[in-house]
Backbone:
């Protein structure tokens, strides 16, 4: 049941991402990727290699919609790799986390740090790979602008979910 | 052996991670210029279906603008038709000539998804292999040249516009003196591109009109491309660097025509094989 909920959420957010958010192209700098929220909140109960495979699959789905084969796959796989280590560091008793990771389960301040680090690293890798390590300044600007907007959207999502 | 197994067990997560990243990088490198896979891209029917659905909703809000654009194009074509009809009558009196085969014909298509504004731009159109689209066909909009078909799915295809950094260029000529140059995007903004290879002694003025040259099989000749906005000769260069304002406004584009150059390319192929 828990996992069906995850899958349904992923489909809904994916539709929102590709049909609405991907169309907001403000001068080439703003490409927020709200879909990472699905990976951020996933429970940590699965074996890590399954987590990695899920990350790769989610990324590959996005890639197909964005014509960017491999870019989101690489970024999401990396995100799923560092996620458990980050939680171990940020949350004292991380063993008791058997359900979703969100504001209610790990607290507002911890969640905002957790989300910020993961979103920033995910976006940085996406834009580095999209521009293939050229035009660093443009990449940096894209990363900062997009990551900040995604961060806002993710916190907004959490806010709506809590209500 | 046992040590190896232990090692694999211990670092299995990292091995999976490493493997996945290698696959991802391979995919990126393989698709670096434009999407080559028809499964993992927007010309996949299942994926394009979403965009088509979105497009049917959004296109209602653009009907007025689309109509105006199409009407403008219609008027222009009608004017040309009168011109050509007169000329044909005149020529008919002078010479008896065999009608040449129609070299190109056009396949109408609708843009269902567009990604403009980044470094890698592309659009998805609702025509594919079953409608006769093939890789490398030119694409025209109501105002002029748009781009070229890069990837063809069964019902959908991906078009890369002139404004892309993947190395696609168009052979163009200047209307007033027929000098030939190459038009390429410099990655700055999607309304301008750079025309090069026109020698510095040629007279180039802002406002000069740029047309396709017809030298390549992709585009027939004399299709409007854009107008010269500014031109400069960089130090030590023997050619102009001309900034061209493109006629096509990509963010307002909805309907395009794909140029089927089947007959022309078949004839060329035949000629080449005869020469060998």
Residues:
């Amino acid at each position: 049941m828990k996992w069906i909920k995850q899958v349904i959420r992923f489909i809904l957010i994916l539709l929102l991402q590709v049909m609405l958010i991907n169309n907001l192209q403000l001068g080439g700098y703003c490409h927020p990727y709200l879909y990472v929220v699905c990976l951020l909140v996933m429970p940590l109960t699965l074996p890590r290699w399954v987590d990695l495979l899920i990350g790769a699959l989610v990324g590959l789905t996005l890639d197909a919609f964005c014509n960017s084969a491999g870019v989101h796959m690489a970024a999401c796989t990396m995100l799923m790799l560092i996620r458990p280590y980050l939680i171990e560091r940020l949350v004292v008793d991380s063993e008791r986390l058997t359900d979703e990771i969100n504001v209610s389960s790990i607290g507002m301040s911890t969640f905002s740090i957790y989300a910020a680090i993961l979103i920033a690293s995910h976006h940085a890798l996406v834009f580095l790979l999209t521009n293939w390590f050229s035009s660093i300044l443009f990449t940096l600007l894209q990363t900062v602008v997009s990551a900040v907007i995604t961060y806002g959207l993710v916190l907004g999502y959490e806010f709506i979910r809590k209500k | 052996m046992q040590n190896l197994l232990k090692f694999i067990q211990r670092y299995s997560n990292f091995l999976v991670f490493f493997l996945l990243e290698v696959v991802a990088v391979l995919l990126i490198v393989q698709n670096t210029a434009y999407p080559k896979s028809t499964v993992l891209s927007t010309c996949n029917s299942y994926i394009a279906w979403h965009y088509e659905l979105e497009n049917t909703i959004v296109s209602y809000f653009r009907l007025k603008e689309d109509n105006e654009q199409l009407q403008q194009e219609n008027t222009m074509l009608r004017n040309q038709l009168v011109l050509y009809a007169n000329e044909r009558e005149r020529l008919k009196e002078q010479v008896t000539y065999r009608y040449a085969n129609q070299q190109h014909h056009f396949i109408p298509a609708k843009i269902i998804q567009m990604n403009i504004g980044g470094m890698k731009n592309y659009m998805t159109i609702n025509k594919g292999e079953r409608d006769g689209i093939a890789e490398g066909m030119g694409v025209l909009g109501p105002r002029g040249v748009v781009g070229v078909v890069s990837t063809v799915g069964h019902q959908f295809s991906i078009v890369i516009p002139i404004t892309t950094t993947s190395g696609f260029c168009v052979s163009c000529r200047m209307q007033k003196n027929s000098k030939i140059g190459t038009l390429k995007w410099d990655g700055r903004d999607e309304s301008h591109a750079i025309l090069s290879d026109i020698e510095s002694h040629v007279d180039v003025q802002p406002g000069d009109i740029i047309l396709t040259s017809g030298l390549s099989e992709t585009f027939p000749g004399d299709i409007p491309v854009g107008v010269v906005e500014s031109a400069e000769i960089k130090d030590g260069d023997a050619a102009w660097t001309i900034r061209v304002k493109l006629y096509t406004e990509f963010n307002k584009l909805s309907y395009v025509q794909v140029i089927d150059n089947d007959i022309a390319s078949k004839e060329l192929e035949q000629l080449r094989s005869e020469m060998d």
